[in-house]
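Example record

The entry below shows one chain as it appears in the dataset: sequence first, then structure tokens.
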Amino acid sequence: MPPSPELATLTALARALSRPADLADSLQAALGTVSEALGLETGWVWLLDEETAAPRLAATRALPAALREHPEAMHGDCYCLSTFRGGDLRGAANVNVVWCSRLSKLVDDSTHLRCHASVPLAAGERRLGMLNVASADWRVLSEDELSLLTTAGALVSLAVERSRLESARAWGLAAEERNRLAREIHDTIAQSLAALTMQLEAADARAEAQGDRRLGEAVSRALALARSTLDEARRSVLDLRAAPLEGRSLPRAIEQLAAEMRETSVPPLLIQVSTNGFDADGGDLPAAVEVGLYRIAQQALANAARHAEARRVSVLIAREPGQVRLCLEDDGIGFDPAAVPPGRFGLIGMRERARLLGGTLAVGSRAGGGAAIQVVVPLGSAS
């Protein structure tokens, strides 16, 4: 006895989603299978960002020209996504195109999508995205068709969740490899350079005691190079370890960074870290915000140590209503922000990190008056 059309569709869908392919390719194949089974021409899949919940168009099928040729029409929120986020859309449902902020704008009768249905993608209570199908025909999906669409949505949700878990696992393996490299640099290259530096310092002292000027100059150059290379090796160790924050919260990670820089900075740099608005374990900021602010703090502290000739730096990390704020102030030589080339001191990189987080970065300084950096990043309701 041949399988029912519904079972055949779900079997084909499961096969398409179980292939070892890129998630985008799997979603594209799944969209085709579902659309064809329901006799619909058009479809698209939204995925919600894990941190910000912002919608991203992950796959499309046969979009009409009014949507395909105007990408801005497929950006931002809409009736379906708003209903889904509000918890009012639990299974597949027909959607009146008049209510749809995207489809109601299509005025060309030849491409007007008149049939529209949506199914939420979720893993437990976590919202993953939405699968939409549409057609130019005047029809609504039957209860059986909506049931098929709901089951298809569950299979697609499993594929999305599996892909994200695999990405998280790969990220974890990469973090382990970064930590392994950091340990290797610290235990071999950095230790050897430290020993070489000590030997050169002893040779420099002997050359000075013997009054051998030529030898002293050669040893001094070698010593400067060894110290510089050792500093770079130590910074590489910090950079490699910093990417995943080693499982620590942002305040704890910056406190550890400050402690490590106190030990490695020459001359010594006194760094005071204070926090405000965090709970005992440092809070639960989104990972992207933690990593971005950590990198900004890392660059700013490196600037204070390398360029500012600072002796003291104060760092404040404050969690405030709807935002998190990072402030760093040093007592260094300062600079004129208007006269500094754009790429100097990593300012472009710091500003770009703040921008990607939806935040702002402000720099204040004057010659002889130290420098101050303030970063403000908004926090969504998910955080």
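Notes for this example: The two ends are 52 Å apart (CA to CA). The mean pLDDT is 78.
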